[in-house]
């Protein structure tokens, strides 16, 4: 029998970036918030002495325990889905701050094209440019409408970046609050080569602080030390913006946040029209509770947002055969793989040092910044050189043809440890009617609930995109003056290994029509007006960028929506 607790104004499920932003904004406005996090408590002191590559990068100290909960996957409906039992393709964060703790800090606003992708594609190329089965979808909001919320996120996080923007990104109403990070010799080579080719490189916007910074909420953080331990690690300096050192302390300082860890939400309690709260299990004891609330905010990761709605029977599940329903629709990933490695004989670089968002990038081939008329794909990619810190266990670069073990391998590995620079492309991923999330009929978690099942594969569109982008990375790498370059332009069937990116999107997509979306532009559910579903699960597709900036901006807009709803109720659409 579940214990019913006193009612609160808002209950937030998941205390990562989304939950932290929303909790901070609502508590500052005077509302009581219960924040439920299924992982453990975490503070900056937990990051001290974490420069242990084996423990954190290889044994996934900050990640979810897959023996208790995981996802199943299959490439199509003709094969059986199997559970992901060891980490590979993507990494699911666990504990307070979630994936916001172990991210790199690479910060990109999605392009104006992204938010109106169907309309803008049809306007330029006609409807025939969209392949049969591609469920391209406008988001129900424009870049200009979202732009002020990007600014709020940037000021909170202290984003470091070039105050000038290129013609290939959205206009900024306010410059980044801190200057760009340092320029390394490798970055300089990339920038010079790209400019010689007529492209428009700029330094990557970074949530790793370039200088000491005090944000509008009074949170002070120290500058980056360029130690190179960002991705898969927490930052002991607080230089990398994460929820535990920015928004969550703000909410706690109001006295209005009741933060509960090890609280695993199993159901949104509702009557078919409105939610009355959530049911959760306190994992150490197995005790079950019901937390009543005026508003429920789903702020967990993509897979859990979708799974919780499906388990709660809230919203209509997506059916790929009829294309009816919306929950689970438009699952997307990221199309990586296009890259070129530049091997030097007469130059060495300090590649061990770096930061998660230290690099230079260009968007000449991102979004619709170039003509797709004669191309067999839509969208594109951000092309970059990054110096994120190359650690010794995982990083052993050798030229093609080098033996995989033995004396020759060791000699080549030592020789090229500091002599290789890599130009990469982070490609967009378009939605298809047969790519979706649903509940697995066979496999269950440690509480006996069905796991979420992913049906996804790379399409011909993705393979064409990789070929095109690889040629561009090679063009730049060749211009960088290396002794030789090696290009990767192949993309095969999607597999759960190796690691590719933790940039999963879709499943609770936003839009202006209840018939083809789960939430409106305030991320308020069409089917339950007091439920807000936030995070990258609301993306209609994935862009050629990291998703965090857009997740953050939409979180600030959702917080505004919750405040409006608490004042007057009803639909905000």
TrEMBL record:
Gene3D superfamilies: FAD/NAD(P)-binding domain. Residues 440-554 form the Glucose-methanol-choline oxidoreductase C-terminal domain. The keyword Glycoprotein does not apply. The lineage of its organism: Bacteria, Bacillati, Bacillota, Bacilli, Bacillales. Residues 152-332 form the Glucose-methanol-choline oxidoreductase N-terminal domain. Belongs to the GMC oxidoreductase family. GO terms for molecular function: flavin adenine dinucleotide binding; oxidoreductase activity, acting on CH-OH group of donors. Keywords: FAD, Flavoprotein, Oxidoreductase. It comes from the Bacteria. It comes from Cohnella xylanilytica. This is GMC family oxidoreductase. SUPFAM superfamilies: FAD/NAD(P)-binding domain (SSF51905). InterPro entries: FAD/NAD-bd_sf (IPR036188), GMC_OxRdtase_N (IPR000172), GMC_OxRtase_C (IPR007867).
